[in-house]
Automatic annotation (TrEMBL):
Residues 82-152 form the PDZ domain. This is Carboxyl-terminal processing protease. It comes from Gelidibacter sediminis. Keywords: Hydrolase, Protease, Serine protease. InterPro entries: ClpP/crotonase-like_dom_sf, PDZ, PDZ_sf, Peptidase_S41A, Tail-specific_protease. The keyword Signal does not apply. One of its GO terms (biological process) is signal transduction. PANTHER family: CARBOXY-TERMINAL PROCESSING PROTEASE CTPA, TAIL-SPECIFIC PROTEASE. It comes from the Bacteria. GO terms for cellular component: outer membrane-bounded periplasmic space.
Length: 544
């Protein structure tokens, strides 16, 4: 144990020596050296004297990650396994079972098997709960159990899983898996093309260019570019995607930092594919980072009409830094700014409120900026659409239902109770929605509104001040009103919930490819974008 500790303790000491040589820290030399010495001494004492056996690597991993939590969510430490996961995220390539997998404490849940890949070939379905991998029980595995599914192409992995309460087994032969940045492109009608850009990997711009060229060859005169749910990725690919629709040498994004070398401007480098084709870009609350660079640049340059809901507001730039022993850190070095000068970042992690939550700029404090043609746009975090749709922004109750995986779980139950053979004929009914409400009751679904939380805090203060009896009856009436609202809220959000349910259920029968086909025929955002493009005067009015 003590020999192992000696090796582990050398690492922070060496890091401390290197750390102190950086010129940026000269003014803090003594304080940094002092804190490293305190930490090293504490780390040594805990590992040598704690009553139970400790794992120095786990303790250090926790200590580092806990320290970084006080900065922002994007400044992170990566151990060797994390580094590999990051590589997969950027390239879209890996070797494994070909499925989106959710790692929980005691199981791995198949969220989506990719059509034609190993998990699909082995018969696994969305909702299957893997409880054992090659004899290893997931519930007792200390590291990320999802790593157990990865391995060399051609090797097999045996899994034990639960499906609808019954235990089953499968042997899956691993393959090289390529996740496309553009999983779908097709014609909406004889003049409008539709492109889904899912992630900004190394192949994002190449795949988007290919999609644009194919659609134009099929007669596309306008394009709907779908960035909804696109969490971002590589900065240079965001610039390259923007370059498809705007000329060479056009400013796309600026990064600003306290370190001079990170202050940069990014311009388009190539000739555009098409600078005139009318373009609608769809965004939502999960469009982030690189998605916001593209949407923000196209909006500021009056090159596209943005439709949907305000984007996430992830405007912090990270740079990977290699450490020792195969580890790495990703550190926030600057902020993104659109061509008009707007900062994309929505949350201020350096000025938190009394509860420790990051703050955001109030709407009345937004700053106005001008697009290339003089339209007024505002900062405040994220990209505000030119046309905001209520259906795109998830309501609080819908968000709670989605976060509790209840849309997903209901779709799993639906799949095993219904036969759907023709996508064109699929449509959820009022009876299906009533079944969903009964399902929520069976799962004891509840959610707390911000108003309830505020009332709870207020009544706690009232009790301290012995005023609870004075306001008790009024408080009870308020709670009744809130509960009545929550009961009706599900019905008020029926359209939004039915849309989410339909998309998830369609994916079960017809995979993601079928979901996009369903989208084109039924999705309200795509329909709105199509209507704008079909009316040239409406399209131009948004850009004037």
């Amino acid at each position: 144990m003590k020999k192992l500790l000696t090796k582990k303790i050398v690492l922070p000491i060496l890091i401390g020596v290197v750390f102190l040589t950086g010129s940026a820290f000269k003014s803090d030399f003594f304080e940094i050296a002092k804190q490293i010495e305190i930490f090293t001494t504490l780390f040594k004492e805990v590992n040598m004297n704690y009553v139970d056996e400790t794992n120095p690597a786990d303790l250090m991993d926790t200590a580092i990650k806990s320290m970084l939590q006080d900065l922002d969510p994007y400044t992170n430490f990566y151990n060797e396994q994390d580094v590999e996961a990051s590589r997969i995220n950027n390239t879209g390539d890996y070797t494994g079972i070909g499925a989106s997998v959710l790692t929980l404490k005691d199981k791995l849940v198949i969220m989506e098997p990719y059509k034609g890949f190993p998990a699909d070939k082995a018969g696994l379905k969305a909702g299957d709960e893997i409880i054992k991998v090659d004899g290893t029980v997931v519930a007792t595995f200390n590291d990320d159990a999802g790593n157990l599914l990865q391995g060399t192409a051609g090797t097999t992995v045996d899994v034990t899983y639960l499906r609808q309460g019954k235990t089953q087994t499968a042997t899956i032969k691993r393959e090289a898996v390529e996740i496309h940045a553009v999983p779908h492109h097709s014609m909406i009608d004889d003049k409008i093309g539709y492109i889904v850009l899912r992630k900004f990997t190394e192949k994002a711009s190449a795949e988007t260019i290919n999609a644009v060229r194919i659609l134009k060859s099929q007669g596309a005169k306008q394009i709907v570019l779908d960035l909804r749910g696109n969490l971002g990725g590589l900065l240079n690919e965001a610039v390259n995607v923007t370059n498809i629709f705007v000329p060479k040498n056009q400013l796309v994004v600026t990064t600003k930092s306290k370190v001079d070398k990170y202050n940069k401007t990014y311009y388009t480098q190539k000739e555009a594919i098409d600078t005139d084709i009318p373009l609608v870009v769809l965004i939502d609350g999960r469009s982030a980072s690189a998605s916001e660079i593209v949407a923000g640049a196209l909006q500021d340059l009056d090159r596209a009409v943005i439709v949907g809901a305000r984007s996430f507001g992830k405007g912090l730039v990270q740079r990977p830094k290699s450490l020792v022993y195969g580890t790495q850190m990703k550190i926030t070095i600057s902020r993104y700014y659109t061509p008009s000068g707007r900062c994309i970042q929505s949350l201020d992690y350096w000025n938190r409120d009394d509860t420790g939550k990051a703050t955001r700029v109030k709407k009345e404090n937004y700053t106005a900026f001008k697009t290339k043609r003089g339209r007024t746009v505002y900062d405040g975090g994220g990209i505000q659409p030119d046309l905001e749709l209520d259906i795109t922004k998830l309501s609080p109750i819908t968000t709670a239902i989605v976060n509790d995986q209840l849309i997903f779980d209901f779709a799993t139950d639906y799949y095993y109770k219904h036969q759907v053979s023709d996508l064109k004929d699929f449509k959820l009914t009022d009876d299906d929605f009533n079944a969903f409400k009964d399902f929520l009751k069976s799962k004891n679904f509840t959610f707390e509104t911000k108003t309830e939380k505020a009332f709870d805090d207020a009544i706690a203060v009232a009790k301290e001040e012995a005023l609870d009896e004075v306001i008790d009856s009024n408080y009870t009436n308020l709670l009744k009103s809130l509960n009545s609202y929550k009961t009706k809220a599900i019905d008020h959000n029926k359209t939004q919930l039915m849309g989410l349910l339909s998309e998830e259920i369609v994916k079960r029968y017809f995979y993601r490819e079928g979901m996009y086909t369903y989208y084109i025929a039924n999705n309200p955002e795509i329909k709105t974008g199509t209507e704008i493009l079909k009316n040239p005067s409406t399209y131009l009015n948004y850009l004037k």
